[in-house]
TrEMBL record:
InterPro entries per the UniProt record, alphabetical: ArgJ-like_dom_sf, Peptidase_S58_DmpA
Lineage of source species: Bacteria, Pseudomonadati, Myxococcota, Myxococcia, Myxococcales
Protein name: S58 family peptidase
Gene3D superfamilies: L-amino peptidase D-ALA esterase/amidase
PANTHER family tied to this protein: BLR5678 PROTEIN, D-AMINOPEPTIDASE
Signal peptide limits: 1-25
Record-stated family: Belongs to the peptidase S58 family.
Source organism, top-level taxon: Bacteria
Protein species of origin: Corallococcus sicarius
Keyword field: Signal
CDD domains hit by this protein: DmpA
Transmembrane segments: none
Entry's Gene Ontology molecular function annotations: aminopeptidase activity
Length: 421
């Protein structure tokens, strides 16, 4: 018995090292957003410039960040994000909804019923590719505890692949993490960047993750609010464009690399170079791999077929940023309206409203504007991260982005102080 204890100790220590640390649901933003840098995509943002500007919408994150310090030790860089259209107090009350896929190399469960019924009940969950089953189970378990099994029996769970930075094959996301993300959901400011499902994501060759933005229409256009939340994990560096400026061409270096003595193993790491190698400018994996999940919320009175039209405008924003909907990219979007959908006082029919189709154009424009800004925010707020197999992905450098935009006349030049006479 005593002779076996030393052999068990290393394994026990390794297990303790790999236990994920659950970070706070709403952490302070460590880096500036697009609006902080003076970058505008048009339109008027809401008070928070977030999806939670749409009344009733709540967002929560569970962030898993852990791993050993030893070179090559598995590292956990993942999590779960929950978007609740009507908040936790009314989570089972359905909203009108629609989904659309630009390219389907990805997963969003529950979409068949959304398309069939035009309704969405429960939260929209986002995590990593290997965590879909665990998150799905977690939503059902959360609903069972509240006797909501039927209403939330077909959870909507979306994913993007975080295997470059996260030990994705370790299946670290468990059903309890999904439950924690739902319980953490709150109105107000939304944590962005390397949080929740976006913790280990890469976007246009820079550190990506969760981003959000909103637009408020003027009173003459209805005064409606539209908000967007993205999990950004798509796109090539060379095509990255911000406000029409080819930023990817202006910042061709700062490519993914590895900090350890040995290169990472796996087909996606074949071209990765040591971080100590100067001038690393070649892609470290086939460009166009990855995905983006986009959730669009609005308080405008839209029916499912109109929300389908809104969701179909999301690809316009992705294209403006340099995305192509490449063959191996999962670009899947969901749009919902928070207008009431249920009959009142047992009435046999519900009274719902529908915005005239000719009045949809401002919402289309708001969708394109807010989606672009949410994508950029996902990169701007994310900082450089070193993850599994010592792979490192750099954050988008704010100073070089601003310099590129100024060079193209998209930002005003730095004013020089007037000489003292």
């Amino acid at each position: 018995m005593t002779s076996a204890r030393p052999a068990l100790l290393p394994g026990l220590l390794c297990l303790l090292v790999l236990l994920p640390t659950v970070a706070p649901a709403q952490a302070p933003r460590p880096r500036a957003r697009a609006s902080d840098l003076g970058i505008s995509f048009g339109g008027a943002p809401g008070a928070l410039n977030a999806i939670t500007d749409v009344k009733g919408v709540e967002v929560g994150h569970t962030t898993l960040h852990s791993g050993g310090d030893a070179p090559g030790a598995p590292k956990v860089r993942t999590g779960v994000t929950a978007v609740l259209p009507r908040g936790r107090d009314a989570v089972a009350q359905p909203v009108f909804a629609a989904t659309y896929a630009l390219n389907g190399s990805g997963e969003m469960t529950g979409t068949h019923w959304v398309k069939e019924s035009g309704l969405l009940s429960g939260p929209v969950m986002i995590s990593n590719t290997h965590a879909v089953g665990a998150v799905h189970e977690g939503v059902i378990a959360w609903a069972q505890k509240r006797n909501l099994t039927w209403e939330l029996g077909l959870p909507v769970v979306a994913e993007t692949w975080d295997g470059l930075l996260n030990d994705i094959g370790g299946f670290h996301v468990r059903p309890t993490h999904a439950m924690q993300a739902i319980d953490a959901a709150r109105p107000g400011p939304v944590a962005e960047g390397s949080v929740g499902g976006g913790t280990g994501m890469v976007c246009h060759g820079f550190k990506g993750g969760i981003g959000t933005s909103s637009r408020r229409l003027p009173a003459e256009q209805g005064g409606y609010t539209l908000g967007v939340l993205v999990q950004c994990n798509y796109g090539s560096r060379r095509l990255l464009s911000v406000a029409g400026v080819p930023v990817g061409e202006e910042i061709p270096d700062l490519r993914s690399c590895y900090t350890g003595a040995q290169p990472p193993k796996g087909p996606f790491f074949l071209q990765m170079k040591p971080c100590s190698t100067p001038g690393v400018i070649k892609p470290t994996h086939p460009e166009g791999m990855g995905s983006i999940i986009v959730v669009v919320a609005t308080d405008a009175p839209l029916l499912p077929h109109q929300l389908d039209r809104v969701a179909r405008r999301v690809p316009l924003a992705i294209a403006k940023m340099g995305g192509l909907g490449e063959d191996f990219s999962g670009d899947i979007f969901l749009a919902f309206s928070t207008q009431p959908t249920e009959a009142v006082n047992g009435a046999p029919s519900a009274q719902v409203a529908m915005l005239e189709n000719v009045r949809l154009n401002p919402l289309f424009e708001a969708t394109v504007q807010a989606t672009q800004e949410a994508i950029l925010n996902a990169m701007l707020v994310s900082d450089t991260m070193t993850g599994n197999q010592d792979a490192r992905v750099y954050g988008l450098p704010h100073d070089r982005l601003v310099k590129a935009l100024r060079k193209a006349g998209r930002l005003p030049p730095v004013s020089k102080p007037k000489p003292v006479k």
